[in-house]
Write a structure and sequence with these properties.
Leucine-rich repeat, LRR (right-handed beta-alpha superhelix), 2 domains, elongated, alpha/beta, 350 residues, 6-stranded parallel beta sheet
Length: 350
């Protein structure tokens, strides 16, 4: 008897939770949710379904909302189509569609609907979206106000990610989330470049670009930084302990955008003679008065290249401690005809 009772209980419970909300129930629920705040409608883990979403889209109660959250409500592309045709969602600025059954078709509907032309936030976390959907967003003439886009936990492999990060249509977009997608290396690189560039923009807006080295950016980050339009404003660049190799140092040395630098800190990296030689040959770092190369892997050849460089003649401070410089390199530095402006002759190498 107990087994039958339990079986009946589970069947009853499943039946109660699996049924889609009816039209009247949806209207009543919307009214209740909007009583406290008529700007935000949040529906979490209800079996709204496409039919329930159609009721919501046509309801006059949603005319005031600016944020719509539909989390785990069992909606698919057909529900999105109904939403896109709503005459009542013209004020919508944020749309959260997490954990649903939306595919590229639904994304294309969103991307082409004037209903969503004022969206600033679009969250499509954990759906079934591929590169096709990502490309639809990237090329949208409707979603031009987007500032934030969440596509975490979808099926994007790379081309869509690349188009999103390079989109000429989404000029306001500064936050793209693509975690937990099967993205190939080229897509990851494009996404990382986008993130770094947005971070550089934020630093510049807050007059903190000279603090760029406080986070590890590595060789790739240096390459992106050199493409940043406002890098030419830098007078001080501290890239201490940033995982840099000669590749980054050569790029820094060759960049015409760094000719305003007076101080460059490259200590605690993986710079060898090749990097030191590039610094010595640089025609763009002639204003440097401070150069810190402590704790690298520079040997005699690198030391000689710096000693013989007329380009670095304005140096007042040169640090080469904890490298691989021997007697020959030390002698070249000591006898240099170019390093005459050093405040403290360097031969403690600190």
């Amino acid at each position: 008897m107990r087994v039958l009772t339990l079986a009946f209980f589970y069947v009853f419970t499943l039946g109660a939770t699996s049924g889609t909300m009816s039209g009247a129930a949806v209207e009543k629920y919307i009214q209740k949710k909007l009583k406290r705040n008529d700007k935000i409608l949040r529906i979490n883990e209800k079996n709204l379904g496409d039919s329930g979403l159609t009721v919501l889209a046509q309801s006059p109660w949603v005319r005031s909302i600016t944020t719509l959250v539909l989390y785990k409500v069992h909606i698919s592309d057909e529900g999105i189509r109904a939403l896109s045709k709503s005459p009542n969602l013209k004020n919508l600025q944020a749309l959260y569609l997490e954990h649903n059954l939306i595919t590229d078709k639904g994304v294309e509907i969103i991307s082409n609907s004037e209903t969503f032309s004022n969206l600033k936030t679009l969250n499509l976390y954990h759906n079934q979206i591929t590169d096709t959907g990502a490309k639809a967003i990237a090329g949208s003439d409707t979603l031009t106000q987007l500032t934030e886009l969440n596509l975490n936990y979808n099926l994007i492999k790379g081309p869509g990610a690349i188009e999103l990060t390079r989109s000429k249509k989404l000029r306001q977009l500064h936050n793209i989330q693509l975690a937990y997608n099967p993205i190939e290396e080229s897509g990851k690189k494009a996404w990382k470049r986008f993130q770094l560039m947005e971070w550089f923009k934020d630093l510049h807006r807050n007059n903190r670009l000279n603090q760029v080295g406080e986070a590890l950016i590595g060789d790739f980050g240096v390459m992106v930084l050199l493409d940043f339009p406002f890098v030419s404003e830098l007078e001080t660049l501290d890239l201490n302990n940033n995982g840099l190799t000669d590749e980054a140092v050569i790029a820094l040395s060759q960049s015409k955008r760094l000719n305003s630098l007076v101080s460059l800190n490259l200590s605690q990296n993986n710079i060898t003679d090749a990097g030191a030689q590039a610094l010595g040959r640089s025609q763009n770092l002639e204003r440097l008065t401070t150069l810190n190369l402590n704790f690298n892997r520079i040997g005699d050849e690198g030391a000689r290249a710096i000693a013989e460089s007329s380009r670095l003649a304005n140096l007042e401070s040169l640090k080469l401690g904890q490298n691989k410089i021997g007697t020959e390199g030390a002698r070249a530095l000591h006898e240099s005809e170019n390093l005459k402006n050093l405040t403290h002759p360097i031969f403690g190498f600190y």
